[in-house]
Amino acid sequence: MHDYSIIKDIVLILLVSIPIIIIFNRIQLPSIVGFLIAGVLLGPSLLKIISNPEQIKIMAEIGVILLLFSVGLEISLKELLDIKKLLLVGGGFQVLATILFSALIIYLIGLPAKQAVFMGMVISLSSTVIVLKLLSDKDELDSPQGKISVGILVFQDLAIVPLFLLVDLMGTSERVSFGEVSIRLLTAFGAVAVIILIAKYLSPHVLYRLAKLRMKEIFTVGVILLLLGTAYLTYSLGLSFALGAFIAGLIFSESEYSHQILADTLPLRDAFNSIFFVSVGLLLDLTFVIQNPAVVIVSSLGILLLKALIIFIIVLFLKYPVRVAIVIGLSLAQVGELSFVLGEHGLGLNLVSTELFNILISSTIITMIMTPFLFRLAPRIAGKSSQIDLTRKKEKLIEQVNDHVIIAGFGLNGKNLSHVLKETGIKYIIIEMNADTVKKEKEKGENIIYGDIGNSEVLKYAQIASAKVLVIAISDRSTSRRALKLAKELNPDIYVVVRTRFMKETDDLVKMGADLVIPEEYETSIQIFRKVLEQYHIPLNVIMQQVNLLRGESYKYLRSEKGTDIIFSHMEELLSARLTDTFYINDQNKIVGKTIGELDLRSKTDATIIAIVRKGITVTNPSAKDVLYTGDTLVITGTHKAVDSAFSILSE
User: Fold this and answer.
1) How far apart are CA 71 and CA 127, in angstroms?
2) Which tens digit of pLDDT belongs to each residue from 157-192?
3) Which of 29, 182, 312, 466 falls 20 to 30 Å from 232 in CA-CA distance?
4) CB of 284 within 8 A of CB of 365?
């Protein structure tokens, strides 16, 4: 008889997940903590309800795959190449320094050198799943701490291959040569490079063919096939499933179907993620923790402190402010899920004893449980150190300005604003936290300085006292709030524009003194609203009047629960009224060479061609014999429905 206990286990996990999500959202704590605790409760240490932890781990792997895939979709291959310095320098130094210092401390405690180095390898890896989940939930993947964290985590995932080979070398040194290790490394990474190249050029064609079939089921199944296929390919080369999923996400992010792919996979990701975090909690042996509390607590706190300090120093070395270094250090201080795999591999090779392995597992899970709390605490600790900036040097402004605009953040929005200001002759100063960007833009003649917008000294150096407008265009909520508060203290009359991705932030930012808050979600809604009205040929001045009303008073109507009925009260009258619109004839239109009489628009649609604009000359009241040519612009009048019908005929 088949064993269906895995179904029971999944039902229990999902049953527990629902109240956990509700409770932890209400107490404003990440649900990850609840899932980890639930795993401990349901596992072999306490209630012993979960009977198939090994099968649960397989299901959990799917959650990891889907999470890394969705993160890859949100980042894109181009963005990853843009942070290659953070990936190679930040990630490389972090892994090497953590292994070196961890091994040294463990060796001084009294363990053999080989075991000390192995323990250092396990400790060097952070939790990609937890950190990216927390960053994604706070929408901080595009912030400085998000980009640096992603760079370090991706390097760690890549480093798992050489780490595994080194563990093999230490555990079975008589059977594994350095030459063999080098060949396996080159083969694995070479194959991954080939996979990326093939997928990059092949996947757009595959996705296009799937989309062209216009069958949602086939598109979804095809995407999952490509995702799991890429994940399995990387796994077969000695890398992790998660890395393959991340690569697939990066490649798909370049396509125009990325939003639909994310929408299709998001529900699956959220469901399987709960299984993953519960499965991690299942591994904790509470009996061992109770019997050895001092060892487990000291090792857990020691790991958190050591990793946070190493990462803090590395981020400062990369020329980022103290605040950012603190946030990243505390966020990446835990031990990760790949450490379980590496630890079990070392246990099988007798590199560690069972007792030492239990210490590792216990410390890893405890650091994971503490991570969401440290993640929430980090901005507060960093905020207290915002006036300390060991990385900032006095950048000389290219020109002294007055009554100017301060642009905080030189991403896409900052660059577009600077172009417009330059064209209109309005003076501005840019504050940017990426040292490479500052150097490059300064060489181009931009009036840019390096610094943290949340630092009062940086704002003073940008001459905020004499500035007229401050535009905060960064992806960091806590820094935006601190910058707004400081700006209003230093210059109460300054007009502050804040960009945010969260509509719930709008009211708080307005209360803090923001003169204009632009939530990206609302702006997207307005653009959709505008384009829809344009399709119904609503006059442009009417559309702009509605848009201005929607944007008024920091999007008051959109934020109101009462709705927006009042501003659309005359829309029915507009739709029933007659209007005048224009249609441009290009060489693709089939009406070229036909006469107005042959079209017979008036009898077919009740719309009338009242003029033709040809080579800058307007022909009024054209006759039925007038021939239509490429480049003509027809002026058409009628009701909305009539004009729509006329446009359909003309476009055939």
Assistant:
1) 14
2) 778 768 877 887 777 655 555 566 667 667 766 777
3) 182
4) yes
